[in-house]
Amino acid sequence: xxxxxxxxxxxxxxxxxxxxxxxxxxxxxxxxxxxxxxxxxxxxxxxxxxxxxxxxxxxxxxxxxxxxxxxxxxxxxxxxxxxxxxxxxxxxxxxxxxxxxxxxxxxxxxxxxxxxxxxxxxxxxxxxxxxxxxxxxxxxxxxxxxxxxxxxxxxxxxxxxxxxxxxxxxxxxxxxxxxxxxxxxxxxxxxxxxxxxxxxxxxxxxxxxxxxxxxxxxxxxxxxxxxxxxxxxxxxxxxxxxxxxxxxxxxxxxxxxxxxxxxxxxxxxxxxxxxxxxxxxxxxxxxxxxxxxxxxxxxxxxxxxxxxxxxxxxxxxxxxxxxxxxxxxxxxxxxxxxxxxxxxxxxxxxxxxxxxxxxxxxxxxxxxxxxxxxxxxxxxxxxxxxxxxxxxxxxxxxxxxxxxxxxxxxxxxxxxxxxxxxxxxxxxxxxxxxxxxxxxxxxxxxxxxxxxxxxxxxxxxxx
Length: 463
Hints:
Blueprint: H1 15-27, H2 32-37, H3 43-54, H4 57-81, H5 85-101, H6 109-115, H7 125-128, H8 136-151, H9 158-171, H10 179-192, H11 196-203, H12 206-215, H13 222-235, H14 239-243, H15 248-259, H16 264-280, H17 283-295, H18 298-307, H19 314-333, H20 336-345, H21 353-356, H22 358-364, H23 370-381, H24 389-405, H25 409-415, H26 418-425, H27 431-445, H28 449-462
């Protein structure tokens, strides 16, 4: 599949389900008399809607050309007012047919709204109300109308866009029983971000970004991961959208997805998203992303992919070659401290060689003080990661090495609250955490820490 944003159902695996439901509804015979009894619109409008609904495609198009506005008015009134699920599904299907048969007619919706401004403050008002409908079919079709309005250039107010995103967040989930709702919401977001002005607004909505980040997990259904990456990929074409956003979590999550060796379409979206970031961010952030990829062993992965033979996706292979070149160049210029900083910022610490290197700490301990102790503060944060004992143990160890190699380290760690945390960790049930805490506390409180450290080693050995 070529990466494109042209189709209405792009990145929407639910489209078949929705289309099937539409076919079923079209085969149903609508009880127009029941609609008439609701007194929502006049009898003349009911007759016109029935005439439109019963016509063949050619005559429907003719009717829309001649009486499009008259057809839209009652449809929007019904969408806004009908409570019956069966009737709502039928009416939203008719409205969908109208918008597909004559795409330009969407531009008449603001005119309809202006005629009833006391009821509908904006063109989006009638549809936003229905995003909480119990029928997923109605919700999906209403969301499509909203995104169609936006794509047609009709301005959406900030609070309305916030409502749309709030709805999307409530639908997107990693839970298997929410799979259908997640796919519907992600489909709507994918269409929404085709409009460039929506991309920055999406990326600046931190709550929505957190939700997208949460589903970028190897345990999440592959289709949900793909759709979330698709949304991010489209958004990342906009330099302004990604420039001022903390993308670190999204980058790391995308890397971890790639490391799982997912389906080709997911791999393609993952690399496409990362490539856009590397190209569209400033040089410093771009290099940081590349170093993060290197620290998670992505260089040998892209090198291996580039050597594969047989039929390959052209766009995926172009991205792979891009990263082979970029990551090799970046790797050649990386220092051991660059590697350390990248690991600290990755969200997970491991016993990589730099942590045990005395030379590394002699040469670099003082650098943890740069930018108001930015890196040191990040290390200290790991002390609270109860769900990751390895990261905690490594962080404790690094605090000890910092103290040992920087004369004023004890005072700074105490000011950051690290000393108290590490002392409490001496009682931790995890043996590695307990051991590293014992060593580090002795480094922090004793001038003769080497001797005491040897004693601790003997105690640990005897246990």
